[in-house]
């Protein structure tokens, strides 16, 4: 969370005083409805759904695409486990592809991993780094695949002038504490596809969508059982304020990242960028020739958690439930044990994406604050240069 303050407090106060905290209500504020309208306008898509999390948005989008048992979905080796779990939640099987030196999914490896069972690709704009969406979309068109953008770490970012999460068939944002804008938790699905929207609408709140308000007006999809990922008016009130701050936060992040990178340009190598202008600016990735060099730099910076290959959070090899093929507690609900999937389950091994592991252990991150002063950035630059001498 970068910036939150009195504006959010005042809007939450109004919601509490209205006593209308439920998403569907007859009050005057209508925070959830207004948030979804404002998101549609800001991101230029006809359909948005706010939800409880980015995972909820990913899972709902996959259901909306008709993904299920018998299908494979390609995900990158470097992403939060929620990306892969969303695939399993739909009854499908995740296939793990390498990342390249942009730390995003490698289009060349994606194409290698496509089989007759592949139905979708999930490019993840990790750390706000845009994926090579032109290549991804070209591959998807060639093989008639869905593209679901996981922009959960890239709220507001863009690729060649188009907002992330609006390029593919659907996209997902997250608004938890660690994201560009935040309400502590939350997520959103964006799509231009009416069919995906209708199915996701039903799935994300199947216990209430038919019984509260007019949410199913104009919906032709037959209701079916799904989940309950419904958000609330307090979360929406916070996010309406955060959405207004988004572009200013991004502008300041990008300016500060550029200032530091320009100052370091002669001292180190950076990870590749697919679009530095669209990058969210939250993170600088310094690329070293060896893991030992990255380790020494991280130690000199007193930042042991700065090497993405060693965080134990976002690397496929640490996804115990996926690697051990435990897709559900009850075996009959487990996609890894379903008859429809028996011939399409990969042989997951911890060294299956060695290229990704190598790159991720040779990178060290510098996190950027949008609120740093020039003096603070100059001090950070001096600290980095000193550490690079190690």
Indicate the topology.
Elements: H1 6-18, H2 31-43, E1 47-51, H3 54-64, E2 72-76, H4 81-89, E3 93-97, H5 107-113, E4 118-121, H6 133-143, E5 146-150, E6 158-159, E7 162-163, E8 170-174, E9 187-191, H7 194-204, H8 233-264, E10 269-270, E11 283-287, H9 291-300, H10 320-323, H11 354-360, E12 363-367, H12 374-388
Parallel strand pairs: 2-3, 2-4, 4-5, 5-8
Antiparallel strand pairs: 1-9, 6-7, 8-9, 10-11, 11-12
Helix pairs in contact: 1-8, 2-8, 3-4, 3-7, 8-12, 9-12
Structural description of this entry:
There is one protein chain. The chain is an alpha/beta fold and 390 residues long. It has a domain at 6-243: Type I PLP-dependent aspartate aminotransferase-like (Major domain) (Aspartate Aminotransferase, domain 2, 3-Layer(aba) Sandwich), CATH 3.40.640. Helix content is 37%, strand content 13%. The protein has helices at residues 6-18, 31-43, 54-64, 81-89, 107-113, 133-143, 194-204, 233-264, 291-300, 320-323, 354-360, 374-388, and strands spanning 47-51, 72-76, 93-97, 118-121, 146-150, 158-159, 162-163, 170-174, 187-191, 269-270, 283-287, 363-367. It has a 7-stranded mixed beta sheet with strand order 1-9-8-5-4-2-3, with helices on both faces. Strand 2, helix 4 (81-89) and strand 3 form a beta-alpha-beta unit. The protein starts with 5 loop residues before the first helix and ends with a helix. The mean pLDDT is 97.
């Amino acid at each position: 969370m970068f910036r939150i303050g009195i504006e959010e407090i005042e809007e939450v106060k109004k919601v509490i005083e209205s006593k209308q905290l439920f998403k569907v209500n007859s009050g005057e504020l209508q925070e959830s409805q207004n948030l979804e309208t404002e998101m549609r306008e800001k991101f230029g898509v006809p359909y948005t759904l706010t939800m409880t999390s980015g995972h909820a948005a990913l899972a709902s989008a996959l259901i909306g695409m008709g993904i299920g048992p018998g299908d494979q979905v390609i995900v990158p080796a470097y992403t939060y486990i929620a990306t892969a779990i969303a695939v399993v939640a739909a009854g499908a099987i995740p296939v793990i592809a390498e990342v390249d030196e942009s730390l995003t999914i490698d289009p060349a490896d994606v194409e290698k991993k496509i089989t007759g069972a592949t139905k979708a690709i999930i490019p993840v704009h990790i750390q706000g780094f845009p994926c090579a969406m032109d290549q991804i979309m070209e591959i998807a068109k060639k093989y008639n695949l869905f593209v679901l953008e996981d922009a959960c770490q890239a709220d507001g970012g863009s690729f060649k002038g188009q907002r992330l999460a609006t390029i593919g068939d659907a996209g997902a944002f997250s608004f938890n504490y660690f994201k560009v804008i935040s309400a502590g938790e939350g997520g959103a699905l964006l799509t231009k596809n009416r069919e995906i929207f209708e199915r996701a609408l039903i799935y994300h709140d199947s216990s209430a969508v038919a019984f509260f308000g007019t949410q199913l007006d104009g919906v032709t999809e037959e209701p079916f059982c799904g989940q309950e990922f419904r958000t609330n008016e307090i979360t929406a009130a916070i996010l309406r304020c955060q959405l207004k701050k988004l572009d200013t936060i991004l502008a300041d992040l990008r300016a500060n990242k550029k200032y530091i990178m320009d100052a370091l340009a002669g001292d180190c190598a950076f990870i590749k960028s697919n679009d530095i202008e669209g990058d969210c600016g939250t993170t600088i990735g310094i690329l070293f020739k060896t893991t030992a060099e990255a380790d020494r730099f991280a130690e000199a910076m007193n930042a042991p958690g700065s090497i993405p290959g060693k965080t134990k959070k976002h690397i496929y090899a640490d996804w115990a439930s996926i690697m051990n093929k435990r897709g559900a507690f009850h075996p009959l609900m487990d996609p890894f044990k379903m008859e429809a999937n028996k011939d399409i389950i990969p042989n997951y091994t911890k060294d299956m994406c060695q290229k990704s592991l190598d790159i991720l252990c040779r990178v060290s991150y510098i996190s950027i604050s949008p609120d740093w002063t020039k003096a603070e950035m100059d001090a950070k630059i001096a600290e980095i240069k000193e550490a690079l001498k190690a």
